[in-house]
């Protein structure tokens, strides 16, 4: 009887969290409250022999936070390198020159913008970086007459494609699986195994972006020029940086693939090369100034994200502890056929929108906690089940910060953005999940 009561309370609280997340509630607050609620529900059953007591402070709050340190360091270094690309002028120079090459052909320019956006965000991360690049690219696309319903999804989908090999995004998603004991002993970690899937996934999504552009070729060619944003907010000159620095966004990934470098030294080396190549190390004072300013801005960009991820770790630990006792019951309900589950996730991928149950940065965090509590699935399989819809959804959901900025900056109706972006990301989910089945698990 007590198991039924606990189950009902857990489902009810989970449903409340789903509604809260999908209505735009603050996720940090939501995760913290759900952690407390699920802990109290668990202890409700302890006197009746359902579960064992545990040290809430140590096991739920202290250890998850302390073991999360390496992930935070990787996130900080990735965000810092992204800010270095922006503040040294490398990202802006790439953007300007790319648009200039294709300015006589709006269609070619749009494809070039998509490719260069993807290139930059293989290492850059965050809404600050997206804004810095967007205020350059959107006015150029506007002057070429590229319709807003095309330019905005192209920009956001290209950023989303780059996230497949962006270490900052990877370590955030990998954190959801930290501590999970896979039956076959596998663990989620950055390296060639993941990149053997991440790179093809990026290519698939960028192929879909180019197809989307080609399908709108007539509208692009016949478009009417228009102005976007405040001209005073745009950089007036192309930053004078060496052309060879344009390869720096992919240097960290290349070092990981070729020499199996950890992301932290790879990002540090790429940052130093960026400072050196753009002349910011000519004087000691100048170097210190840009070092401090980029670090300060980068950490400010991700400060709230780090706090949310810490609170998320608290909830995950609680979810795994609580759901362990419900594992046998769930095993009889949840299909254990990987193909059926993967196909179902692809079909239901739009449920990741608005922080729904297939979005890890939303209600999906509770779903993955439940699945991990069952303890029967391969780690990389669980990774693909929620990361694939979450990652593709990043490209077209208005709750994603840089997407929301792009929609507002271009004064585009959110429903128009969703109408054009969601079909592309949804269709991408199927081949990318197929790649995960072939290359990850």
TrEMBL record:
The lineage of its organism: Bacteria, Bacillati, Actinomycetota, Actinomycetes, Bifidobacteriales. It comes from the Bacteria. Keywords: Membrane, Transmembrane, Transmembrane helix. This is Gluconate:proton symporter. The chain crosses the membrane at residues 31-51, 72-96, 108-138, 150-174, 194-215, 243-261, 267-287, 299-319, 339-358, 422-440.
């Amino acid at each position: 009887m007590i198991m039924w009561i606990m189950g009902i309370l857990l489902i009810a609280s989970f449903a409340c969290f789903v509604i809260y997340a999908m209505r735009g509630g603050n996720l940090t607050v939501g995760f913290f409250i759900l952690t407390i609620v699920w802990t109290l529900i668990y202890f409700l059953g302890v006197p009746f022999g359902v579960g064992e007591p545990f040290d809430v402070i140590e096991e739920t709050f202290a250890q998850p936070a302390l073991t999360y340190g390496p992930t935070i360091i990787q996130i900080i270094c990735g965000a810092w390198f992204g800010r270095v690309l922006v503040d040294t002028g490398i990202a802006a120079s790439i953007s300007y020159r790319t648009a200039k090459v294709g300015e006589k052909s709006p269609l070619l320019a749009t494809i070039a913008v998509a490719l260069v956006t993807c290139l930059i965000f293989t290492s850059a991360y965050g809404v600050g970086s997206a804004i810095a690049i967007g205020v350059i690219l959107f006015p150029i696309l506007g002057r070429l007459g590229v319709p807003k319903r095309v330019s905005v999804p192209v920009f956001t989908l290209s950023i989303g494609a780059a996230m497949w090999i962006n270490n900052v995004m990877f370590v955030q998603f990998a954190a959801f699986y930290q501590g999970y004991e896979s039956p076959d002993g596998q663990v989620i970690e950055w390296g060639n195994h993941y990149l053997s899937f991440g790179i093809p996934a990026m290519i698939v999504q960028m192929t879909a972006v180019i197809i989307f552009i080609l399908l709108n070729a007539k509208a692009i060619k016949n478009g009417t020029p228009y102005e976007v944003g405040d001209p005073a907010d745009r950089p007036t000159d192309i930053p004078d940086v060496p052309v060879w620095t344009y390869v720096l966004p992919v240097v960290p990934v290349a070092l990981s693939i070729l020499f199996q470098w950890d992301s932290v030294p790879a990002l540090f080396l790429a940052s130093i090369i960026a400072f050196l190549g753009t002349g910011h190390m000519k004087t000691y004072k100048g170097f210190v100034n840009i070092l401090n300013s980029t670090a300060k801005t980068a950490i400010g960009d991700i400060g709230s994200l780090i706090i949310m991820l810490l609170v998320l770790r608290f909830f995950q630990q609680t979810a795994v502890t609580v759901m362990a006792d419900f594992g046998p019951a769930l095993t009889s309900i949840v299909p254990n056929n990987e193909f059926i589950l993967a196909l179902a996730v692809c079909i239901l991928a739009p449920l990741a929108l608005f922080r729904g149950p297939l979005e890890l940065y939303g209600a999906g965090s509770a779903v993955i906690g439940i699945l991990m509590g069952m303890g029967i699935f391969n780690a990389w399989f669980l990774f693909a089940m929620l990361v694939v819809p979450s990652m593709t959804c990043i490209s077209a959901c208005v709750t994603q910060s840089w997407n929301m900025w792009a929609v507002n900056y271009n004064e585009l109706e959110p429903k128009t953005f969703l109408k054009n972006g969601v079909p592309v990301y949804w269709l991408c989910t199927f081949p990318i999940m197929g790649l995960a089945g072939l290359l990850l698990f």
